[in-house]
């Protein structure tokens, strides 16, 4: 017999929206947060290949850019008390779809056996002339909140 789904219930004094910035990353220069948690879901803002000091690594190879972007995504997850296995969707924007195969291999090493939903889209340009940008959605357990 199927069990009914678990429903996360907000605690009385818990904020409905929690905004978080990762200490390992440069504070956002725009009007956004690295991570926003609302009603048991974490929304991770688009991450670019920029190091912790805010320096773009876009003059480096696509592989270096991809690994830096994934590292930034890790920093956001860690700051929110989450891990890769909490990811439910990942969105990837590539300025050159010819890099799709290389990205998929690097991503596969990073994500392991976990398989969140994913979309990869080609775009004409990204900030800092980056080769990719990634954003993600993760589930937040009651214990993490």
TrEMBL record:
An example molecular function term from Gene Ontology annotations: deaminase activity
SUPFAM superfamilies in UniProt: YjgF-like
Highest taxon listed in the record's lineage: Bacteria
Cellular component GO terms, alphabetical: cytosol
InterPro entries: RutC-like_sf, YjgF/YER057c/UK114
Protein name: Reactive intermediate/imine deaminase
Lineage, top ranks: Bacteria, Bacillati, Actinomycetota, Actinomycetes, Micrococcales
């Amino acid at each position: 017999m199927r069990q009914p789904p678990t429903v996360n219930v907000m605690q009385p004094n818990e904020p409905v929206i929690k905004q978080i910035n990762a200490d390992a990353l440069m504070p956002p220069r725009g009007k956004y947060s690295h991570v926003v948690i609302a009603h048991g879901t974490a929304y991770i803002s688009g991450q670019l290949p920029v190091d912790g000091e805010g320096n773009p690594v876009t003059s480096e190879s696509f592989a270096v850019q991809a690994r830096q972007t994934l590292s930034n995504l890790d920093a956001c997850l860690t700051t929110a008390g989450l891990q890769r296995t909490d990811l439910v969707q990942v969105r990837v924007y590539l300025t050159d779809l010819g890099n799709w195969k290389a990205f998929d291999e690097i991503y596969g090493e990073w994500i392991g056996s976990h398989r969140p939903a994913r979309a990869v889209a080609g775009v004409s340009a990204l900030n800092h002339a980056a080769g990719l940008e990634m954003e993600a959605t993760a589930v937040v357990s009651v214990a993490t909140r």
